[in-house]
UniProtKB/TrEMBL annotation:
Residues 45-171 form the Phosphoribosyltransferase domain. SUPFAM superfamilies: PRTase-like. It is found in: Cytoplasm. This is Xanthine phosphoribosyltransferase. GO terms for molecular function: xanthine phosphoribosyltransferase activity. It comes from Oenococcus oeni AWRIB429. The lineage of its organism: Bacteria, Bacillati, Bacillota, Bacilli, Lactobacillales. The gene is xpt. NCBIfam families: PRK09219.1, XPRTase.
Length: 206
């Protein structure tokens, strides 16, 4: 079953409002449906929404970072009928020639991570769609773009489940002329509550 994209966004926003927990000034905890426990129905609808938006881009691979990007990326790749790859964290593989690697500053952990993808899985000519759970300052997306670049492949767009519009990532991606689809777009946190951007979903797809 496929729901209309606007309804999917509404369900996502409702879930964020009822189950999301604002931590400090800029972190949203959504571990009851996205980051720890996962809502498979919602995730499947999210995958269909991204796939619909990017269906004309002739995508050959979906790329994300472990672990929270995997669920939405897998659901998207299932719809697009292409493989999903997740960049691995945790191990430094900079000296291993079999991997493309990039350095990513982790927003939530405040540490620098090496991420790596086997050279076997991204090839020149691949048209890659990046999917992630959150967009904050854009460092995760930047690292994935770096890897796509090293592989000689093309990044064709970025799909984000929840963007925090008040941080720098949104502008960073647009400045690279990359199509960006963010399903839930948060304008700000106010008294521990989420305030969504007035325009709702942000979609910059050619
Ligand atoms: P960025 O690289 O854009 O600065 O941050 C994006 C990454 O950090 C995402 O992959 C996500 O895992 C994590 N992240 C950033 N902001 C939040 C947030 O408010 N809540 C959660 N749960 N993760 C976040």
């Amino acid at each position: 079953m496929k729901l209309d994209r606007r309804l999917v966004i509404k369900i996502l926003e409702e879930k964020i409002k009822s189950e999301g927990i604002v931590l400090g000034s800029d972190i949203l905890k959504v571990d009851s449906f996205l980051n720890h426990q996962i809502d498979p129905f919602l995730m499947s609808q999210i995958g269909q929404a991204f796939a619909e938006k990017f269906s004309h881009e002739n995508i050959s691979k979906v790329l994300t970072i472990e672990s929270s990007g995997i669920a939405p990326a897998l659901m998207t790749s299932l719809q697009l009928q292409v493989p999903m790859i997740f960049a691995r964290k945790h191990q430094s593989r900079t000296l291993n020639e079999e991997f493309f690697s990039a350095s990513v500053y982790s927003y939530t952990k405040q540490t620098e991570n090496q991420i790596a993808v086997s050279k076997r899985f991204i090839n020149p000519g691949d048209r890659v769609l990046i999917i992630d759970d959150f967009l904050a300052n854009g460092q995760a997306v930047q690292g994935l773009l770096d890897i796509i670049n090293q592989a000689g492949a093309s990044a064709v767009g970025v799909g984000i489940v929840i963007e925090k519009r008040f941080q720098a990532g949104h502008q960073l991606i647009l400045s690279k002329n990359l199509p960006l689809v963010s399903l839930a777009s948060i304008d700000r946190f106010e008294d521990g509550q989420v305030v969504f951007s007035k325009q709702g979903e942000t979609s910059h797809v050619n």
